[in-house]
Each structure stands twice: as C-alpha cells, then as structure tokens.
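Appendix C. Worked example: Protein translocase subunit SecD
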Amino acid sequence: MATPKKGRNASAQSKPGRSLALILIAIAALTGGMFASGHTTPRLGIDLAGGTSITLRAVPEAGNESAINKTNMDTAVSIMERRVNGLGVQEAEVQTQGRDNIIVNIPKGTNSEQARKQVGTTAKLYFRPVIATEVSGGGAAKPSPSPTGSPTGKPSGKATERPEVTDKGSASPSASPTTQGRAVTDALKASPTPSASASDQAKASPSASASGGTGADDPGKLQERYAKLDCTDPKTRSSVGDGVKASQSTLACGKNSGGQWQKYILGPAEVDGTDVDKAQATLNTQTGAGWTVQMDFTNGGAKKFGAITGKLAQNQPPQNQFAIVLDGDVVSDPSVRQALTGGNAEISGNFTQQSAQELANMLSYGALPLTFKVDSMNTVTAALGGDQLQAGLIAGAIGLALVVIYLLLYYRGLSFIAILSLLVSAALTYTLMSLLGPAIGFALNLPAVCGAIVAIGITADSFIVYFERVRDEIREGRSLRPAVERAWPRARRTILVSDFVSFLAAAVLFIVTVGKVQGFAFTLGLTTLLDVVVVFLFTKPLLTLMARRPFFANGHKWSGLDPKSLGAQPPLRRTRRPSAPIETKEA
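Step 2, the predicted output written as structure tokens:
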C-alpha cells in the first residue's frame, strides 16, 4: 500500500502548474469582464463620492400606531427606491434603521431638494380609467386592448399584471390616424369623473403642462404628448404626471407582462388609495386562478368603485380597464366585465406569489395613515471623505510596507512568494469590487476600505503559518521537497480554521448591523474567502515549484530555508532491534 500512496503524492507534486494556470485564467477573465463592462473602478459610496444623506422618521396618525411595522417599512423602502431611481440615481441607498427610521443616501449629482421631496412624501395611489394604451415607441394614439378574464364566485376584475398589448380587438388597421385620434379625444371628453367636482375641474390649470407636466388642459395637446411619449427614457418617466391633480387626465408609464414599457392616457382618478381598506395575496385553488389579489374597500370606496366599474364594463378594450397608479407608475391595469358593487374585488391573471404580494403591499400602502418627516438632511462633501480615504490609504501603505520589510528580513527568499501572493490577492479583490458595483450595488466606502486593509494581515498570516510549518519540517532533518508536502496538511488545517473564524465574524457582523458597517463586514468576508483561494491555488503550488530550484532546494543562506541557520537536526535513523537475544560464548 505504501508504493501507490507514494505515486499519488508524486503525481500531485508534479502538476502544481495546473493550479497556477487556473488562478491566472480567473484573473484574466475578471479583468477582461471589468474592461468589457466599462466599470474599471469600484463604485464609491456617499462618504467618498459626496452627496446628500436624509433621515426620515415614520409618523402614524393618531390611533393607528400599529401601522409602523416591518412589512410597511419595507414597502416604504421599496417605494422610495423607485422614486429616487426615477430621478436617474441608480446608486442611491435606501434602508431602514431601527423601528421607525429610514436612511436615504443619494450620491452627488442629484438635486437634494428634489430628492427630499420625492422620498419624504406619502405614496399616492389612484384608480384611473384607461383611455388609450400601447407599447411605448408606437405611433399615434390608438386604443390597444388587453386580455380579459371571466368573473368568479365573487366580483372580480380579471387581467394579467401589465398585460402585453396585442392586435386582437384593436381599432381597425384601415382606420386613419385622424379617426383614431378622434376616438381618443371623444373618450377624453366623455371620461366619467364622479369623484371630481365641478369646482375641482374649474381649478385644473393648464400651466402644469406648460412646465413639463401632463395636466388635462386640452385633449388634443394631451394626445400630442402621448404620441411623443417615450417611456423607455428614465428621465421622461420621472417627469410624467408632474403637477397633475387627481381630477385631471394624465399620461403614465408601466411595464406589461412581456417586460416592455407601456404608455397610457388615463382619465381622472375615480378611486383613491385611501378607499382601499385592505388587500392581500391569496392562492385561489377553487377556480384554478392561481395567485390573486383580493381587495376590500371602505363604504365610500365601495360606492365609488361600483360606479366606475359599472361604466367601464360597458366600454370596449382598452376603455374597459382601470389603471392602478402608484406615484405615476402603472403597477396593474385589470379589465372589468361587470359592475363590482359588493365592496370587494379580486384581481387575477398571470401572478406569481411574489408579484401578487408586491401588488397587495402597494395597494395596502396606499391606504396606510403613514407619513414621513425629515429629521435631518446633511450634505456630505467628497473632500471630507477624500481626506479620510487618503489617510486610510497612507495607513494601509505603511502597514503593507512594514509587512513586506518583515518578510524580507525574516523569510528572505520566501518573501518573494509571499509578495506575489499579496499582489494576486489584491488583483482579485480590485476586479471583484469593480464588478460587484453594477452587479449587486456594492459601494466602496470608508469602512469597506478599512476591511480591505485588515485583510492584508489575515492574508499574510496564512503565508506565515505555512512557511513556519515548512521550516519546522526542515529543522527535523528533512529535505525541502518532502518538507513542503508534509507541512501542507498541518498548515492547511490551521489556515482553514483561522479563516473560518474570520468569515464567521464578518457574516455575523453583516447580518446584525446596518449601513456602512455592513461594508466593512462584506469586504472582510470577501477578502477572507479570497485568502483561501490564493493560498490553495497560488501560494502552495508556487512553493512546490520553487522547492525544485537549486536556490531553495540546496538551502541557500538567502533562501530563508538554510538548514544550518534553522538549527536542523541530522536525519533520524532507525535501529533494527533483534528478534531474539544473542548468545555469547560465555553463555
């Protein structure tokens, strides 16, 4: 059995180049992906790039303090992220802090006052009748139908969430743009407005549209803006509905079930979000409808909803649909086939559990008496963060220099392997941080930089453990090549245990903390994992190769592996014990 084991060990020792080639290919692939994606530098956090930090505090109405709970706070965070990202700020950070606070960090480049207005107000939810809709980028305004469903045991508005527009049931292809435009104009003029009083209509000012909004100043102008509307442009989407009152017709954008942007002409709001008493996602197994969203209305809301659905049910698609509009974004556009007067309704279609729960949360949030007050709004300058970053980098450079000097003085030739390993670890860390920015939103802040600096000591510690194990084997009288292989299992166990403890601490810190401290924990955990990769795929194979070179194998005094300077003992020789006593002549 000893011979095959020796052969396997020899085979493992003879192919360290495979591991080195693997890690070099990984570095080349990550570097190529970094340049191909155009993200050649890590994304900086607000403390390094500068920007605005806003602290919002949730304030419930009297008698409804229970509205502040984890579910509602998470929903508010989701809505605020949509608001801020609608301004074109993809790097904004929105997260809860404690029970009733939300922290919004907006990097430099965004108007802080506009951002405060976007995130600090309560979400507005409306039910508006659909007058016209089509995939964004189409031609003139024309009615575009969406699929409808059949009613179930309880009154329901059946539709898929943001259904894709098809040609079936649409206006005749031979109809001229003038005829289509006239149909939309007539629909705008005939749009039912039971919830809007005559005084509200008289107060509707066309000045909103002149300033970039979409107020219902004139059906013809609204139709012209609809024809030019491009919902694929984030800036255009963020301005749709600005300055529009609930009593006015407006334009809106939303995604259909095919993932395409859909544009809409919507009539005045018929039902307000506060008219929804509650909404919940349920799995309807009786009718086979799958996941549905059930809504219960207040007494006043039930009357409004019954009136509008009764009128919409008499129309042809898409004017038998109503749009659920949250902050100017159409989140669903179900169609109606009958008047829904029972005070409740069910929206069904191609819902998944997640999409049904998201829509139910949005509907419920529109009815919550939950508002936010701005506790503080601070401007963070990049100069302050830049100075701190410079000081941190100087401290890191000093620490790295001291580590290198120590390696050179103590390990001599072995320090060459350690320094190369540090460079490989640095390359992997940099490329991964650059790619994780656009991939998962990772932003490099000051605590994250501290985590990377701490990782230098963790990585160097792994090298030292392995080198000391090899030197111990040489002190026992073994030559270098056997020493490298015999020392590896012992060093490997110690390195894995040490890195596991560091990674566990980083994971716990990441879970129990919020904000910038998570950046430190994430970086520490990432670099700890990379330490294992570098030691296994680079440091150990490289030392195996170097052990074959005469400079190291012969124990040169500058190699760091000189047996004489290490105080090596002569090889231990076995003494054969006789199996039986030897008889002497006297005996």
